[in-house]
């Protein structure tokens, strides 16, 4: 299960990074910069450390959250939802966590950054992350891998 979580996190994080750094600038004029949010939340200036923290959270902790929290809740509360809807919903939950809990409550920014264009680019990126996480987990489980 840990290998599945790490593989899902790695592939989802690569997808997120491509979206954030290659596609988002075409839409909003600049990349998504979650390391800047990490710096704001924790109050330090080290950009490399902030990138590492964001990377570890994306590769390790978010996929574990999907496997052990989001998916079991979805299976109990909404068992009729297909895996990909659960994955997209998980991504929306990550977006709420990032832009409301972390950015607003902890870093003091307006809720959801005031719903600027970057907010919506972040939503799409988090939904992609959730969808890819769910897809990799489903693929690994369909092969009998855990």
Characterize the main sheet. none
Overall structural domain count: 1
Number of strands: 0
- Rounded to an integer in angstroms, the radius of gyration calculated over CA atoms is 15 Å
The helix-strand sequence is: HHHHH
Catalogue the unreliable spans.
none
Give the distance, in angstroms, between the N- and C-terminal Cα atoms.
4 Å
Q: Give the helix proportion (percent range).
A: over 70%
Shape: globular
Strand content: under 5%
Q: What structural class do you assign from the helix and strand content?
A: mainly alpha
The number of helical segments is: 5
Q: pLDDT average, as an integer?
A: 95
Protein name: DUF1440 domain-containing protein
Transmembrane segments: 44-69, 81-106, 112-137
Organism: Hwanghaeella grinnelliae
Keywords: Membrane, Transmembrane, Transmembrane helix
Which helices and strands, and how do they pair?
Elements: H1 2-28, H2 34-42, H3 47-77, H4 83-106, H5 117-142
Helix pairs in contact: 1-3, 1-5, 2-3, 3-4, 4-5
């Amino acid at each position: 299960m840990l290998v599945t979580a790490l593989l899902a996190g790695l592939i989802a994080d690569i997808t997120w990074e491509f979206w954030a750094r290659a596609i988002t600038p075409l839409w909003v004029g600049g990349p998504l910069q979650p390391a800047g949010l990490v710096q704001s939340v924790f109050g330090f200036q080290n950009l490399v450390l902030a990138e590492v923290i964001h990377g570890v959270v994306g590769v390790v902790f978010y996929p574990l959250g999907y496997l052990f929290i989001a998916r079991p809740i979805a299976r109990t509360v909404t068992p009729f939802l297909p895996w990909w809807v659960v994955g997209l919903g998980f991504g929306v939950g990550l977006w709420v966590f990032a832009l409301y809990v972390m950015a607003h409550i902890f870093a003091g920014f307006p809720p959801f950054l005031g719903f600027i264009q970057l907010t919506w680019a972040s939503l799409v990126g988090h939904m992609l992350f959730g969808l890819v996480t769910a897809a990799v987990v489903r693929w690994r489980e369909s092969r009998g891998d855990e």
